[in-house]
């Protein structure tokens, strides 16, 4: 049986792929998953060092375990947030109801695979996302 630990959570975080950019007004297309490079006119990938970090906290409920995810850094308009299996394009877990100005993006056959922006309204450190890991977690 798989046991969650802080190490497991940190390892899982390494597999998160995200791209923050000035954005398409109605969200990233599924094709953006291939390389996470923005495809809209006048938008360049973020420079290095990337000005964002992902903060996550494990929440324990009697029935389900979730992680609260916050993107720390400058305000942003667009994103593609997804948890992936190591060395694959298979989405891992699912996202709970997206916060305002964001929506689900179906990528691997699950309606709740990923979250993207739904408009160009500013998102910031107060925008929180909630991710549910699979149970049991794959090796």
From TrEMBL:
Domain Reelin: 35-135
Keyword Signal among record annotations: yes
Superkingdom of source: Eukaryota
This protein's GO CC annotations: membrane
Keyword Signal: yes
Alphabetical keyword list: Signal
Pfam families, sorted: Reeler
Signal sequence residues: 1-21
Name by which UniProt lists this protein: Reelin domain-containing protein
């Amino acid at each position: 049986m798989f046991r969650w630990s802080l190490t497991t959570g940190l390892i899982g975080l390494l597999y998160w792929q995200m791209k923050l950019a000035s954005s398409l007004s109605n969200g990233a297309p599924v094709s953006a998953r291939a390389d996470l490079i923005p495809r809209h006119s006048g938008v360049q990938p973020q420079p290095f060092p990337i000005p964002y970090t992902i903060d996550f906290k494990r929440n324990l409920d009697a029935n389900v375990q979730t992680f609260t995810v916050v993107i720390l850094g400058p305000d942003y308009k667009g994103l593609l947030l997804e948890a992936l299996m190591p060395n694959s394009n298979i989405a891992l877990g699912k996202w709970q109801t997206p916060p305002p100005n964001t929506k689900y993006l179906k990528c691997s056959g699950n309606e709740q695979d990923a979250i993207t922006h739904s408009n160009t309204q500013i998102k910031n450190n107060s925008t929180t996302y909630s991710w549910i890991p699979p149970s049991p977690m794959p090796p």
